[in-house]
Amino acid sequence: MKPISVTLEKSKETKGTYRFDSPDPNAAITSVYIRKSAFQSGAVPERITLTVQEA
Hints:
There is one protein chain. The chain is mainly beta. It has one domain (4-52). It is 0% helix and 47% strand. The protein contains no helices and 4 strands. The protein has strands spanning 4-13, 17-21, 31-35, 47-52. It has a 4-stranded antiparallel sheet, with no helix packed on it. A hairpin with a 3-residue loop joins β1 and β2 (17-21). The mean pLDDT is 94.
C-alpha cells in the first residue's frame, strides 16, 4: 500500500477534541478529530500533516 499524506487545518474545537479538515473536498482523508490531551504542551498547531501507511 502506498502511504497517504494529507495536510489538515484546524477548523473546530469541541469539549474534548480539536477537529482538523482538509481544504480539498476530494482528499483521501477529509477530517480527523484529535483529543485535546494529545497536545501536552497546550500549543495546538493550525495545520497538521497526517500520514496513513500499512503497519
